[in-house]
Write a structure and sequence with these properties.
Largest sheet: 6 strands, mixed
CATH architecture of the largest domain: Up-down Bundle
Number of domains: 4
CATH topology of the largest domain: Methane Monooxygenase Hydroxylase, Chain G, domain 1
CATH superfamily of the largest domain: Peptidase M41
Oligomer: single chain
């Protein structure tokens, strides 16, 4: 997969921080790589007595098992105490006058043996009664006392229907309890699914958050209000009802919300926007009411709604009439936020990376009053974040976190956490005692370009094409005054589709770009394609992504930045872009608000910019053909060249460098 030399400047200046790379594209594979890393929090166990804590789950089978065990014990004990004998043996005992205290029942006879076979006296016995008319006469002849007992039909009948009814009642109670109990119960579908964390269960503080000092300062006021609300109320001040955290994925929005709860020491209700909406109408609104009801009971507290855009999308967009459950849920949220007492001690925090699609009613004063933008960290912020994530990592003496921060422009907190983890894994795989600087450099390449594939078989012809392609990128970048310095050039395949890459790193964080800088970036992107034309007199499919990125830059220069003298100071942007997401439409449908003639002029201006850059690159590489040959020959030999090696190689005389490479 190819990645651009440097990302396009857009209306959100943080995208300029993204690290650029030129990768020679393998046309047989076109799947994009997903290098986004989610910011994960450690799991928190609810306290005892909390409804969210997992309890012992009763099962009806436990009840049946208890009945079975009780019956077996009863039968065993009864068998030990009462001896069952045959009726023939009973008749012999009667004839020998060895029985007493007989009770004649319709189905059985019970009594006591004067002496059993083992010689034990007064042993109880039971036998089945058979139809024997001579039995009573025999008992009278032997002088054995007996009595009769009639079976209780009504008690047996009562037990025959009361006991099954009791069983069905217990089963009914069990099923109703299962449906009503727990967050997954049918009858509790309207209950809030928010995870509740007690004061002592949020171990995150502002010390665990780095690189976003401005956002921490904004939220410090929220913490101070929750701790000492009288400081604000005595002067008539009102704390904001809601705080909206906006920023790119992985910048630490959820972590910052937990840090506010940890610093203030109040209960923390955490829920995702998608947890409100269900297929049943009215469930989302009921959950909103239940959540705010619990919050009022536990005030002061914090309600945190993650991914607010799943719930708060602008109403009337994408609906086809009828009832929309999501809109009803949003309406209930708006009503609850309006009904909140400003001094009730309940702060509502939410996070999203798509604020442009939120309903305007959510963003008005009185609801989400304060918007805290969390930008990508600068080089100093990245260094602080790396220090936080390397607290538990054994670092080698050669590790320079400032250098690592400089090598990772555009990385957010989640990316840096993943980078540290990858470096630790690489070190452990090599059985090292500490994580060294080499491991960090390798993990940077792995996170950006993918897994290194040294065993991929590439024929010599393709390898030469890749070497000249990457040498063209590097040579053009080192020849232009405004281009970012080249940090590394490699022809080792990485990831799915990258057969080689040229890595450029900016010397400092940039927020603005001039027209001349953008033109130089066009030249760097076209360097690989032009090198193939000059050397081989033919072109390959490897520059497909380079051409795509170059076209995007040229189109943005013409349609967004007003950098075309022919079209003037007018923008012709066709669609909105997500504010904090890279690539893809931002939710609005494409629309063109200019004529066909203007569209033709735009296409001509884009082609003119790319053609001009192509001519400049051709001139540069033609003049430096010997250096191009030297650089490509060295790449074929060493496969990877660092910045120092590149400078040393290009500063030496061409004949000496070429002979050494050969």
């Amino acid at each position: 997969m190819t990645q651009c030399v440097i990302t396009l400047p857009s209306k959100t200046v943080e995208s300029i921080h993204l690290m650029g790379q030129n990768m020679y594209k393998n046309p047989r594979s076109s799947r994009p790589q997903d290098d986004s890393v989610l910011d994960k929090m450690r799991p928190t166990i609810p306290p005892k007595g909390d409804p969210n804590r997992r309890k012992f789950q009763f099962s009806i089978w436990y009840f049946f098992l208890a009945i079975l065990v009780f019956s077996l014990i009863h039968d065993y004990m009864a068998e030990k105490q009462v001896e069952t004998i045959r009726y023939s043996e009973f008749k012999r005992y009667v004839m020998d006058s060895q029985v007493k205290e007989l009770v004649l029942r319709p189905e059985q006879i019970t009594g006591k043996l004067l002496k059993d076979k083992q010689g034990r006296p007064d042993r109880p016995f039971v036998t089945v009664r058979v139809d024997d008319p001579e039995l009573v006469k025999l008992l009278d002849e032997k002088g054995i006392a007996y009595t009769g007992r009639r079976a209780s039909k009504w008690l047996a009948g009562l037990l025959s229907w009361v006991f099954p009814l009791l069983i069905f009642f217990l089963i009914w109670r069990f099923l109703i309890g299962r449906m009503a109990g727990g967050p997954q119960g049918v009858l509790s579908v309207g209950k809030s699914r928010a995870k509740i964390f007690a004061e002592q269960e949020v171990p995150v503080t502002f010390n665990d958050v780095a690189g976003i000092d401005e956002a921490k300062d904004e939220l410090a006021e929220i913490v101070e209000f929750l701790k000492t609300p009288e400081k604000f109320t005595r002067l008539g001040g009102k704390i904001p009802k809601g705080v909206l955290l906006v920023g790119a994925p992985g910048t630490g929005k959820t972590l910052l919300a937990k840090a506010v709860a940890g610093e203030s020491g109040v209960p923390f209700f955490s829920i995702s926007g998608s947890d409100f909406v269900e297929m049943f109408v009215g469930v989302g609104a009921a959950r909103v009411r239940d959540l705010f009801g619990q919050a009022k009971e536990n005030a002061p507290c914090i309600i945190f709604i993650d991914e607010l855009d799943a719930l708060g999308k602008a109403r009337g967009v994408g609906t086809f009439g009828g009832h929309d459950e999501r809109e009803q849920t949003l309406n209930q949220l708006l009503v609850e936020m309006d009904g909140f007492d400003v001094n009730a001690g309940v702060i509502i925090m939410a996070a999203t990376n798509r604020p442009e699609i939120l309903d305007p009613a959510l963003l008005r004063p009185g609801r989400f009053d304060r918007h805290v933008a969390i930008d990508r960290p600068d080089v100093a912020g990245r260094e602080f974040i790396l220090k936080v994530h390397t607290k538990e990592v054994k670092l080698g003496t050669d590790v320079d976190l400032a250098r690592v921060a400089a090598l990772t422009p555009g990385f957010v907190g989640a990316d840096l956490a993943n980078l540290v983890n990858e470096a630790a894994l690489l070190s452990a795989r090599a059985n090292k005692d500490t994580v060294q600087m080499k491991d960090f450099q390798e993990s940077i390449d792995r996170v950006i370009g993918g897994l290194e594939k040294k065993n991929r078989m590439i024929n010599q012809k393709e390898k030469r094409i890749v070497a000249y392609h990457e040498a063209g990128h590097a040579l053009v970048a080192m020849s232009l005054p405004t281009a970012d310095p080249v940090n590394k050039v490699s022809i080792i395949p990485r990831g799915i589709a990258a057969l080689g890459y040229t890595q450029q790193l900016p010397t400092e964080d940039r927020y603005l770009m001039t027209r001349e800088e953008l033109r130089d970036r066009l030249c760097v992107l076209l360097g690989g394609r032009v090198a193939e034309e000059i050397v081989f007199g033919d072109i390959s499919t490897g520059a497909q992504n380079d051409l795509q990125r170059a076209t995007d830059i040229a189109r943005s220069m013409v349609t967004e930045y007003g950098m075309s003298e022919r079209l003037g100071l007018v923008t012709y942007s066709e669609q909105k872009r997500p504010m904090f997401l890279n690539g893809g439409p931002g939710g609005s449908t494409p629309s063109r608000e200019y004529s066909e003639e203007t569209a033709r002029a735009i296409d001509e201006e884009i082609l003119s910019l790319v053609t001009e850059a192509h001519g400049r690159v051709q001139q540069i590489l033609t003049d430096k053909r010997e250096q191009l040959e030297t650089l490509s020959a060295t790449l074929l030999e060493k496969e990877t060249l660092q910045e120092e090696e590149l400078k040393e190689l290009l500063d030496r005389p061409a004949a000496e460098a070429t002979s050494e490479a050969l």
